[in-house]
Amino acid sequence: MSVQVTPEQLDALRATLLNTSGSTPLHERFRALFMLKAVGGDEVVDIVAEGLADPSPLLKHELAYVLGQLGNLRALPVLSNVLINPTGEHCSMVRHEAAEALGALSAEEGLDVLKRYLNDPSREVRETCEIAVGKIEFDNSPEGKARKQNPDFPTIDPAPSAPSSEISTLRTEMLNPSLPLFERYRAMFALRDFGAGSKEAVEALADGFGDGSALFRHEIAYIFGQLSSSYSIPSLLSRLRDPVEDDMVRHEAAEALGGIASDGVEGEDQDTLPVDQRLPHGGVLAVLREWAVKESAPIVVRESCQVAIDMWEYENSTDQFNPLDSLSVEPSSGKANTTGMERSAAAAIAAASVGVKA
């Protein structure tokens, strides 16, 4: 389903996303982006594409992600152009996300451009192209066409979950560097499907943070944001705090922590954890606030923490910014298995004075 908005409401969302006033905070722009995602349609694709001229790599990364999740082939030439990067304006993190989004669209027309960059100088770009090619080929095979999406996870994932198996078997497959990345990702998402309550599966996923691929590590952090499992908090804190960790991993760790919006397993003895996994006074929110303003932190990390703070505040409050200026959120019984920003945007759009169309 998509959300129906008036032309005036769509204009308001566009103005917020594109920061036409010049003074819109980044977290409000993110909220508008995911509200636009709920609206969908050709006009939204065009609005989101406009935002790719923004100087913020973090925002452009999220714009590319949404273009893939919209499932609208109108975005295919836009994403292809970001991956090709003829003007050199897009960093590898943005190009990687454009390649992943092409995989999400799952159109065979996207294969040529993806295969062209299988030997890109940027490791995360070429690895993403490899996975995206695998996904498109799988999705268009008889097996892929017959496969049904896991209703517990409504996102379009970079790879479909592997068939159900034992956690130990999936962990071994996920960590096996001799397997194609696409197959390792399938094992990764199959571990995710065990859910937030499976400490064993979460710990198996956390072992993936030892992999040599930043792309692989960033996907683990993204999955932890989907799961919202308290068991993942120590390992996410470690990734965010590590000054030599890749920016894209730290960015995903920050946003995952904001979406989980808790301080971990109640009663956990912090003294038993490695120093980089321990909580300070003030908990996870204190860590996010520290890195949101730390001058030595890369801009992507600082901006991600700023957005993560907004996610945290959404999860713990109903008094939130709404570009449609009509917020009245009813308490929910539990979290959807999407990102924290998507949950906050979904609540805002649902509470606005808009209708829903199939």
Summarize, please.
The protein is 57% helix and 2% strand. It contains 18 helices and 2 strands.
Please provide a written account of the structure.
This protein is mainly alpha-helical and 358 residues long. It has one domain (2-156, 261-357): Leucine-rich Repeat Variant (Alpha Horseshoe). 57% of the residues lie in helices and 2% in strands. The chain contains 18 helices and two strands. It has helices at residues 7-17, 26-39, 42-50, 57-69, 76-84, 92-105, 111-116, 123-139, 142-146, 167-174, 181-192, 199-206, 214-227, 233-241, 247-260, 283-293, 299-315, 340-351; strands at residues 2-4, 355-357. It has a two-stranded antiparallel ribbon. Helix 5 packs antiparallel against helix 6 (92-105) and helix 10 (167-174) packs parallel to helix 12. The chain is globular, with a radius of gyration of 19 Å. The termini are close together.
Structural class: mainly alpha
Please tell me what the overall shape is. Answer: globular
As residue ranges, the low-confidence spans are 325-333, 351-358
Q: What is the residue-mean pLDDT, rounded to a whole number?
A: 90
Describe this protein with a few key phrases.
mainly alpha, Leucine-rich Repeat Variant, two-stranded antiparallel ribbon, disordered C terminus, repeat, Deoxyhypusine hydroxylase, monooxygenase, oxidoreductase, Deoxyhypusine_hydroxylase
